[in-house]
Structures are given as C-alpha cells and as structure tokens.
# Entry
Amino acid sequence: MKMYLNSIFTDPERTARLMDIAQSSFLPLLKGAIFYTIPLTIITFIVGLILAILTALARISHVKVFQMIARVYVSAIRGTPLLVQLFIIFYGLPNIGIIIDSYIAAIIGFSLSVGAYTSEIIRAAILSTPKGQWEAGYSIGMSYSQVLRRIILPQAARVSIPPLSNSFISLVKDTSLASLVLVSEMFRKAQEIAASNYEFLLVYSEAALIYWVICFILSIIQQVFEKKLDRYV
Amino acid sequence: MISIQGLYKQFGNLEVLKGIDLEVEKGNVVVIIGPSGSGKTTMLRCLNVLETPTKGIISIEGNTLDFSGTVPKKNIASFRRLTGMVFQSYNLFPHKTALGNVMEGPVIVKNENKDHARKKAQALLEKVGLEDKVDFYPAQLSGGQQQRVGIARALAMEPKVMLFDEPTSALDPELVGEVLKVMKDLANEGMTMIVVTHEMRFAREAADEVIFMDQGVVVERNRPEIIFTNPKEDRTRKFLNMIQ
Ligand SMILES: Nc1ncnc2c1ncn2[C@@H]1O[C@H](COP(=O)(O)OP(=O)(O)OP(=O)(O)O)[C@@H](O)[C@H]1O
Ligand SMILES: [Mg+2]
# Structure
C-alpha cells in the first residue's frame, strides 16, 4: 500500500505512465458507457416498465389465472440472483437450441428483472389512487381502459416517480453484470484494459467514476422531474 | 321518464335495498332524505350502475336494464351516459385543470372535437360561476368551487338526469349556498334531478317531491309542503323531528 502510493508520487516515470493510461482508457470506457451501458439501461427500463405495468394490472385484475401468472413471475425473479438468470439465458438456453446474442440476452434478463421489481411499485401506486377516481371516470362514461390510461396511471406515475428513479439508477449499475455474458459495456471494457496493463485500481476507479457521474446526473434529473410533478398536489 | 322497479341490493348477507319502486317525471326534482345507512347512496349508485343491483329493473327514457339476468358491459356503459353523478367528495381529477376535468368526458368518451369541447366546457364553467378559474387545478380551488366543477363535469356529458349524493355535506357552511344556487338554477332550467341531501331548505324550495327512505325501503313520498308539515308515517315524523 505504502509502496504503491510512494511510487505514484515519487517515481515520475510511473506517474507519467498512470496519467497516460488514465487518458488513453478514458475514451474506450466512455464509448462503452455511451454505446452499451446507457442504451442497455434505457431499452431495458422501457421494456421492463411495460412488463411491470402489465404485471401490476394482472395482479389487480379479477382473473385468477392472470393473478397466478403474475405472482409466479414476480416470485421467481425476486427469488433468484440476477446473475444466475443472465447465465441461464445466455449460457443455458443454447443447450436446448436457443442461441441468443449476448446483448439481446442482457436486455431480456434485465427487463425481466426490472419488470418484476417495479411491478410492485406500480401496483402500490395504482392501489393508492382513491376509489373515487375510478368511479368519477366511470360516471362520465369512461371504460376501464380509458379510466386506467387517462385518470389512474397519470396519478400513479406521480407517486411512483421517486421509487422508479431509484430503480433506474440501480439498473445503471446492475448493467455491469452484463460484462459476464460478454456484452462489451463499460465494465467489460475496463476489465479488458486492466488485463492488458495490470493497473486494476486505476482503471476500475475510472470506471467507477463514470458510473458515479452518470448516476449523479440522473439524480438531478429526478429532482427536476419530481418538482414538476409536484405542481398540482 | 325514470322508473325503478323492485330494486334489490345486497352486500354479502346485508340487504341494503329491499324492493325500491320509484318513478320520476321528466324535469322533476326529487329529494331523498333518510337516516344514515338507509340506502340512499346505494340507490343512487345503482342508478348509474356503480353498484350492480342484485335484482330489479331500472329504466331511463326508454333505455332499460333488467338485472334479473346478466347485463352486458356495453349496455351498462351506454346506460351510464344517461346519468350525471355528483359526489359528496367531488372526486375531481387532481392532475387536470377545471377545464380539463370538464372536457375529459366529451373528448374521450364522446370523441368530440377538442376546440368544440373546450368552448362548451368554458360555457359550462361560466354557468357555474367559475369562468375565472378554468385553468386552476382542483387543489387550488375551494370545496364549493370544486363541487361546482364537479357539476359542470357531469353536465358536459349532457345527461338526462343528474344524481347528487349529499353534494354539500363535505363543505364549510359558508360554501354551501353557492353550490345550492347552481343546483336551483339547474332545477329551474328543467333538469331532471335526484338529490340526496340533508339541506331541508333546498328540499322545501326546489323539490317537486320528497322521498323518505328508511332501512332500504321507500317509506313515504309526497310534495315537500306535505312531508314537512304533515307526514303520514310515524317514522317520517320521528326522523324530521330528530333533524330539526
Ligand atoms: N360496498 C359496500 N360493501 C358493504 N356494505 C356496504 C357497501 N356500501 C354500503 N354498504 C352498507 O349499506 C348500507 C347502506 O349504505 P348507504 O351508503 O347506501 O347509506 P346512506 O343512506 O347513503 O347513508 P348516509 O346517510 O350515511 O350516507 C350501510 O349499512 C352500509 O354500511
Ligand atoms: Mg350516503
């Protein structure tokens, strides 16, 4: 530890080498973030959110079969590690002839996970909307789906923005697991770079910093969003 | 014009409506009074099918729903459009402005052109005295103002009959008058109305008929001046003594 720190600050040659690596690895890492981590996060979150809304609706529907399917899905996803799910999809399915590109496999795995976890957020938000809102919608002649789309979901969205933002930010970080199914997202890039120059501390810290900056920006966006939605409360 | 025949409603083992028969003439205002739990709200909710009656027949201007059999969802939706409901707790859509609340039904349910619906909504809000509040959200309005938006929202669907469930009982006393005035204006214009209320002055001044309900049945019905001065039934007399 001491030696390492010493060498950074006392050995000018080593300092120069580290500066050089930090600089040359920045662009590949940023590319990994921009072309893989961020799109993966966004696509996954959108697909996951759609799954989550469907799951939440199934849970609150009066059709027993829908309820059952939704329950089993949520329970299975929450009861197994995300990494194991990714491995089953990417390394396991080929055994029965289903071969999925690593990027698609990651999208499927993360979406299923987001769908299960956030369905509970959305279900709670829908249930927190007063019954009178449904009745007011029905009383002006709206159908179930009209009330849901126009009256309930917009109000549920307002309630669920804070917890959903947290899920989104977690997802940014979770996408690093995709490195293990060979998606060349930021963390995989970091692993490749570090493997070639052995400067693990430096390169991984640099990746961490980029994750942090992304999440920091997201949390600012979250705050602006929440303020805007607070308008009519 | 409106007729209810043999209306029953049961919640589990609790029989709340025990065979209601009622006729309301077009343009008449009927006020329903009765003790708490007598089934007044339930009856109104059956009329616009927010509750499904256990059995009975309801009919409005020739549109009939018979609950002895199963009633298709489609028929319920179209039947519902004949009635406008005003709720005790207003139930305005909090994420929409006063104007948005009133336009919602015409635009979404009736597929009306937006500009046309907006003009109509503005006129309705003016009618209830809220022309300067069109762009306010419910949270920015007083209870009385919210309830008037609620009335405008129901009117926007051009219902054949307006149902009011204790429209003023959540209001501070000083705000009751403004809502009752709007209701009286409506009555004077010839709107058919069924009003559950504890406002006896409104009943006396605006009702064509007062109905006294108790324990799920209609005990007595008569013109207000008779009910309030010389009720036939003991139960009616007792109730009126209690609330006056
Ligand atoms: N959804 C429901 N499930 C079970 N019981 C209900 C339901 N709605 C109403 N009830 C019961 O039905 C009875 C009649 O209720 P209702 O609300 O129609 O009375 P009300 O005459 O409107 O009374 P109030 O003057 O207090 O408003 C009450 O005993 C009530 O508890
Ligand atoms: Mg009631």
Remarks:
- Chain A touches chain B through 21 residues (CB under 8 Å).
- The pocket of magnesium ion (ligand 2) is lined by residues B 40-41, 165-166 (CB under 6 Å).
- The mean pLDDT of chain A is 91.
